């Protein structure tokens, strides 16, 4: 409730002092919310969020101090009045760049690692709250500031446009090879925020409606995405993207809703996501021929987003995913039996590998996998047998980690074959 209260104050604030205090309180409350998650990573994520927030608000405060030196006021209306007839200057440009940059950095406080950790630890409501309420409040105040300065500092448009394109390309390209559902969703949230940044970079008094529409689209697709994950997690205990496998046949009505969600995220008609991207393109077109490279990059982003979000849709109708890859489990048992040593056999199809592990009495293969879980997509089993899923680019790190654990926790006595 305190975070909601701080967000409301931030949205309605009419001077920079109130904005600064609200931002500080919002960062502290959100950090406490993350810290309340009951897992070993929550404290680390909370500290990271707090440190990022402190750095961002410091940059924001630096810009505000410069602006106060120019206008002698912190009131937004008074600043707008004092800028009438003002031709701008280097100090004013620096002030507004620091203010805008500080607010954008505040948006990025909820970074990929924090968001993916919350989702992986089944703290989806907390992740949903942090993805919506604080974000909307910061977008609201950022848009108000940008409208005031739109005619004075054109370079801010370019800076925000570059940041939005960079974040979007990074997230969408990462999603092309992502198989973990928590990481896939985290990248999706950040990429959607990147598209909102693109709209913000073009904000003025004439297209505020476009920003409002994009925020409503963001609200709808994010709630739908998180609702879908909560629904699936209650029925299928899996952190892989293959959680969507065959749901078109198991849960047809739910699958239909998820297809519309992914189509909206991809920006295909007739969904709200299509019109969101249409507003971005039309706004860039109005800027003139000088922004043609940005227009081309945005079109490439749209193509990549379609490829990314078609992947889970295809899984919904694929009945053969489970049988495509996987090791010969009997072979793993024969290797362990012959050499009296734990063994793991992994079979790859493309970049995704599935493995089977067998162990000997006195050495828990599950403990060994838990020690190396950061390299795995998922794993499960018991002391003497386990299964795992892994990305190809993690195989060498996993090999070193699992062998090091075995060297530290095995002795010659347990490797001596026992004759019953």
General form = elongated
Beta strands, count: 4
Rounded to the nearest angstrom, the distance between the terminal CA atoms is 64 Å
Our Rg estimate from Cα atoms comes to 25 Å
Main sheet: strand order: 1-2-4-3
Query: Which structural class should the secondary elements be placed in?
Result: mainly alpha
Compose a concise summary of this entry:
The protein is 68% helix and 6% strand. By secondary structure, it is mainly α. A 4-stranded antiparallel beta sheet has the order 1-2-4-3.
Structure description:
The protein has 420 residues and is mostly helical. It has helices spanning 2-12, 16-35, 42-71, 76-82, 90-107, 112-120, 124-149, 155-175, 181-201, 208-233, 247-250, 252-266, 272-286, 292-317, 321-324, 329-339, 365-371, 395-409; strands at 343-349, 352-358, 378-381, 385-391. Strands 1-2-4-3 form a 4-stranded antiparallel sheet. Strand 1 (343-349) and strand 2 form a beta hairpin. The radius of gyration is 25 Å and the shape is elongated. Mean pLDDT is 81; it is low at 321-326.
Topology overview:
Blueprint: H1 2-12, H2 16-35, H3 42-71, H4 76-82, H5 90-107, H6 112-120, H7 124-149, H8 155-175, H9 181-201, H10 208-233, H11 247-250, H12 252-266, H13 272-286, H14 292-317, H15 321-324, H16 329-339, E1 343-349, E2 352-358, H17 365-371, E3 378-381, E4 385-391, H18 395-409
Antiparallel strand pairs: 1-2, 2-4, 3-4
Helix pairs in contact: 1-2, 1-7, 2-3, 2-7, 3-5, 3-6, 5-7, 6-7, 6-9, 7-10, 8-9, 8-14, 9-10, 10-12, 10-13, 12-14, 13-14
């Amino acid at each position: 409730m305190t975070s909601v209260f701080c967000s409301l104050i931030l949205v309605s604030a009419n001077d920079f002092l109130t904005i600064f205090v609200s931002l500080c309180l919002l960062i502290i409350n959100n950090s406490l919310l993350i810290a309340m998650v009951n897992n070993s990573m929550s404290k680390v994520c909370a500290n990271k969020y707090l440190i990022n927030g402190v750095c961002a608000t410091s940059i924001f405060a630096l810009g505000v101090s410069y602006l106060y030196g120019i206008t002698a006021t912190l009131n937004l209306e008074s600043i707008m009045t004092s800028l009438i007839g003002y031709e701008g200057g280097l100090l004013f440009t620096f002030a507004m760049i620091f203010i805008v940059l500080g607010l954008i950095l505040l948006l990025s406080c909820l970074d990929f690692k924090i968001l993916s950790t919350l989702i992986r630890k089944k703290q989806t409501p907390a992740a949903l709250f942090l993805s919506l309420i604080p974000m909307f409040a910061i977008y609201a105040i950022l848009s108000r500031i940008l409208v005031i300065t739109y005619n004075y500092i054109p370079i801010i448009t370019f800076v925000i446009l570059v940041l939005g394109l960079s974040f979007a390309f990074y997230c969408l390209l990462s999603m092309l090879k992502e198989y973990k559902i928590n990481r896939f969703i985290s990248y999706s949230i950040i990429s959607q925020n990147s598209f909102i940044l693109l709209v913000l970079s073009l904000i003025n008094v004439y297209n505020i409606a476009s920003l409002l529409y994009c925020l409503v689209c963001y609200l709808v697709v994010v709630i739908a995405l998180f609702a879908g994950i909560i629904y699936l997690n209650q029925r299928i205990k899996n952190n892989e993207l293959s959680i969507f496998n065959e749901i078109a046949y198991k849960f047809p009505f739910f699958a239909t809703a998820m297809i519309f969600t992914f189509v909206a995220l991809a920006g295909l008609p007739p969904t709200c996501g299509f019109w969101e991207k249409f507003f971005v393109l039309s706004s860039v077109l109005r800027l003139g021929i000088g922004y043609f490279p940005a227009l081309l990059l945005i079109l490439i982003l749209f193509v990549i987003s379609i490829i990314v979000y078609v992947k889970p849709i295809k899984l919904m109708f694929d009945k053969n995913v489970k049988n495509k890859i996987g090791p010969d489990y009997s072979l793993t048992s024969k290797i362990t039996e012959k050499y009296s040593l734990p063994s793991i056999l992994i079979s790859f199809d493309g970049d995704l590998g599935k493995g089977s592990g067998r162990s000997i009495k006195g050495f828990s293969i599950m403990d060994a996998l838990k020690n190396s879980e950061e390299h795995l997509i998922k794993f499960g089993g018991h002391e003497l047998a386990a299964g795992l899923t892994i990305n190809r680019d993690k195989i060498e790190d996993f090999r070193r980690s699992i062998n090091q654990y075995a060297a530290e926790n095995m002795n010659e006595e347990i490797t001596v074959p026992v004759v019953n």
